[in-house]
Amino acid sequence: MTGAGQNPNRTSSCPICGAGMDVRQREWLFYCRGCDLWTSSLDTDSERTDLVYTHDEQAFQQLRTNHSAVIFEALAASGALEGLTMLDVGSSYGWFMEAARERGILPCGLEPQEEKAQRAIEKGLAIQLGYFPDDLDYSGRYDIIAFNDVLEHFRDADAAVRAARDILRPGGRLIVCCPDSHGLYYRLSLLLSRAGWKNPLDRLWQKGYPSPHLYYFSSASLEKLVARHGFGLVEDRELEASTIKGLWQRIHVDREKPSVFSVFLYVAALITHLVLQKLFKSDARLQIYRKLPEGRQAGSPLRESGASS
Questions:
Q1: What are phi and psi of 184, to 5 degrees?
Q2: pTM here?
């Protein structure tokens, strides 16, 4: 039996406010109403052997390239980039680092997957193999640290942000790109899950993958998490969630062969991209922060003058 005053549907604790979280949709999915934060207890050591990542480079390269252009345009608006040092956490094939190098930035990357790291090294990029921050072999500080679709995979995102602050120079900038829980795809997946079709929601959380999503942030919850560590928000905007180029490969990023269901998913995703995505919020969000001086609180005029939606 449950004790008086206890809610059997509340479990875990919100990493931002410490309050209990509600179980939503799945036994492994939790929501903090006060912070508008979703978290999961998914296992990061999946035993699935049917995942095939033969298409991920084609699936994501165009999207990541487009994101990079937007990010560096936003960074350049607040000062020259040439000569700045940058750490790309979870650098994958090195696309973001290449874009940084083209703009005169001095990038290095940290990537846990050896094959991806090696591909980036072959492009002449400085990549370390391992996880942030434990495997970072560098004693200096950076002007820029980027988490591009990475922070939501950390078991302890709060500790990752704290570690980033420790190795950023004064005034350094923190880039966070991540899925948005207010986006069209996520909202649709919740509705479909309530109707009994669980697969879209499981897919968005990457359930069963070796590195599933452990967080789904909204704009507000992400700022709450990051700002508590002495960062001021200077940029907040949507990014495109998909591109036509690479969409078919993205549908098959974990499948070897297409199927009738694959064709259905592709057509649905194409319609969403061409029509619905223009009418509703995107599932991808960019936030850029500046490291504040010691003792200065977030929520200062720095945010009001720079942040946009």
A1: -60, -50
A2: 0.84
